[in-house]
Amino acid sequence: MNPTRMTQSSLAAIVLTAFACLTLPALHAAPQPLIDEVETSPLNSNAILPKIISQTAALYPAALARTGTEAVVVSFTVTSDGKVENPKIISTPATQLEAPAKKAVLAWKFQPGSRLGKPADFRLKAPVTFSVNGDGIEDAPAASRKVAAVYPYEQLVKNQTGWGEVAFVVDYSGRAILASSTGASDAAFSKSVIAMLEATEFSPAKKDKRTVMAPSTNRENFRPDADLDFTARHVLSELRKPKPAIFNLADLDDRPKAVSQRSAVYPRSMKSDGLTGQAEIEFIVDRDGRVLFPRIVSSSHEDFGWAAATAVAQWKFNPPMRNGQRVDVRMTVPVMFDAQKLASSD
Asked: Strands 277-285 and 214-222, how do they pair?
């Protein structure tokens, strides 16, 4: 690197401090290289590189905090008016760090560089280094409308207990993003917890009276018969039999009508793939019109299945009727996921 372009004192490595759980250990990054040019120019001897004026901290995904993941190298253009454009990932130890690294770089401000005494565009590269620091958060994120986790059907009918723990980040609008399992007795339990968190609405965290993104963790314990009323216990006991005595739609006076149907949340893990997907969910509508014990029959991707089951579990129907009497009935529905709708809402 030409010494006329930059010195150690003029521009140190950019080290970004991000938020993470207070219980997580601090990460100590090795010294990082200076910002440097990606593209060379025959006019370099007369070039003055842009200088950093302000930088925005990159959010460290809490799901990665236990791995010691630290840095992403990003290339970007600093325009002749000091704006950052077109960030691209050169290298990353984890794909979950790419989006927050790009977002942080786009918010940086530079004093424009010049060639031959005139403002010019420069293509630069720099490491975005993440460290763990949860200090200063006054109000931690809290669920304002929590959704219940769906009990994995196979484990439910086999009377198996379990648990799942998930680390995630609550963004500025109160959505759970970057959710990742940090442990589970069975992978199905953590999948259920992730779907639950992504369907839950949160109140964002506050720091210095400002809304900020903040990490959190959630552990759910699953016990087959916990908090079930008499009707739900009866239905579950039938489902555990080789031939459950539960009616089908053809046995009813009429098909139950839905009175409340919350839309399924597109899985955040599938967002970058941009896929349109589907899932088929079987469930019981009890004699009060509640949905009980949804089961994933099929899905184009398992994350679509868990998101669909979580949505269906919140639905409400008119009570199923047979010969004028309320009964329990088994139903199956398809649930569709449209990636274009997700893109327009994000």
From this structure: unpaired
pLDDT at 21: 28
Question: What are the tens digits of pLDDT across the range 80-135?
Answer: 998 999 999 998 877 777 888 888 889 888 888 888 888 999 999 888 876 444 55
HSE on the CB side for 281, CA within 13 Å? Answer: 29
Both tokens assigned to 307:
């998101």
Specify whether the CB–CB gap between 19 and 214 falls below 8 A.
yes
* HSE-up of residue 344 (Cα within 13 Å, Cβ side): 4
Which tokens hold the place of 215? 């990490």
For residue 222, report the phi and psi dihedrals to the nearest 5 degrees: -110, 120
Distance of CA 79 to the CA centre of its chain: 32
Pick from 341, 166, 330, 203: which is nearest to 264 by CA? Answer: 341
Q: What is the C-alpha to C-alpha distance for residues 265 and 342, in angstroms, rounded to an integer?
A: 9
- Report residue 64 as tokens: 């990665």
Write out the two tokens for 119.
């403002």
Q: What residues contact 118, with CB distance under 8 A and at least 6 apart?
A: none
d(CA 192, CA 203): 21
The β-bridge relationship of strands 118-120 and 113-115 is antiparallel
pLDDT digits (tens, 9 = 90+) for 286-296: 999 999 999 99
User: Hey, is 133 helix, strand or coil?
Assistant: coil
Q: What is the mean pLDDT of the chain?
A: 80
Domains of the chain listed by start with CATH number: 15-132 (3.30.2420.10), 137-227 (3.30.2420.10), 237-346 (3.30.2420.10)
> What tokens appear for 297 in the block?
């029959």
Closest CA to 327 of 265, 278, 276, 254: 254
Count the residues in the chain. Answer: 346
* Helix, strand or coil, per DSSP, at residue 95: helix
Does this model's pTM top 0.70?
no
Check residue 188 and report its DSSP letter. Answer: H
Q: How many CA atoms lie within 13 A of 177 on its CB side?
A: 19
pLDDT tens digits for 218-238?
999 999 888 788 999 999 999
